[in-house]
## 1
Amino acid sequence: ARHVDQVLALLPFEPPYMEAAGMRCDFVGHPVVTEPQASPDEQAAFRARHGIGDAPMALVLPGSRRSEISRLGPVFREVAKRVHAARPELQLVIPAATPVAPLVEELCADWPGNPLVLDPRRLGEEATAEKRAAFGAADVALAASGTVALELAAAATPMVIGYDMGWLSRQIIG
């Protein structure tokens, strides 16, 4: 607190914690907090549309930038292989960001279990609704660190967050 003048909080529950620690804090919000969430009917329709039914479903979100996918992709691939070996009935769903959709498709082309890639280039106007439905329908997610963690939290989807940094950052911090 002695090094912080003021915190601009993204989530409404944060100010009391910051203030209790002796910091001034104002809730300014985040767009994710106000975005609509998929209804149970939309989630069920997503599962039906993609033939998932009641099978367990995991989202894999390796990032929205080439650098993230390049660093985290091999790690997420290894996780996918191990999880599939332990739970072959698990359906992997990989929502891709438009700029990196081809890279994501290439990344998971050899993953086991025939993962479903949600490519916004093919989904058109339905891309946002399809992504929200997937987030709500998932049982668990593995995601790159970033805004997607807030989106998953808003959808009440349990998650594991992965992070890796570039070589230069690692040298500076190390």
## 2
Amino acid sequence: MKKFIGTLFLVIVITMIADRMVGYVFQYFYQTTTTTDEHKISSVMYRTQAPVLFMGSSRCHHHYIPSIIGDTLQQEVYNAGLWGMRNIYFQYALLSNILERYKPQVIFLEIHPIDYLQTPFSGIERGGNLAPFINYSSGCDEVLKEAGLYYKCQLSFLYRYNSEFANILVGNLTDRSLKENGFKPLSGQLDTINQKIVSEDFKFAPDKRKMHYIQAFVDRCRMENINLIFLYSPMYATEEETGLFDIPDSIARANHIPFINNYRQKGITGHPEYFADYGHLNEEGARKYSTMIAPDLKKYITIR
């Protein structure tokens, strides 16, 4: 029995040592991979010093071109948006991590109903993509704890990267870096002939926990003296705004935050040549929209 216990203990110790050693290897290669998700997260956390930062999910990722907007603002701009339903839980955790290293002067947050409604597949587990950064900031750890990931990641270093292995390896073997300060263009054009196009339906109940994190995001920006502006970029087909924006409107008004709502954008909404699908602009549309909106953005910011 004693021999068995001794052998078991030795196996556990060797496993934990191996887990941590391989985990540290993946930690290093996470920061050098060029795969979009990991590359952008590492860039915004470790490298960029851009005073103007765009944050949000896929519509931010594909809609705002830093070079065009930066030319108008005469400031460096970085697009930190990411696809994959990266809702307010992820954004708050990422903001907390960013502020451990540097403080942007202006943040444009692209708001989406996944940030304040009980939409499917948009729970707090979306913050789990930041599991590699456990113990990096208290805000990120808070989200990981609520998602039930924190203690698992404490126990196993490798567990932090369990969904990232392929991206980390491929991104270190090939160069996939984004060339335009985080902007990811979409190609193709919306097919309105063979595809029935309808406006997106967001008839879901409000999510109090998500609204709590929106307010936490606002409070953190105020605490750090960061100028925060809410955005909503164009959709291809729109319906009457029957309360869709009541929540971000009320949060913006209560906190004296500008909310630039371009849900219906003249010259873009209803023009299939500017959309890759009904909710995302293609590259031509992103260039047109970035050019149109840049002067409006300049009105709302003061670079110190």
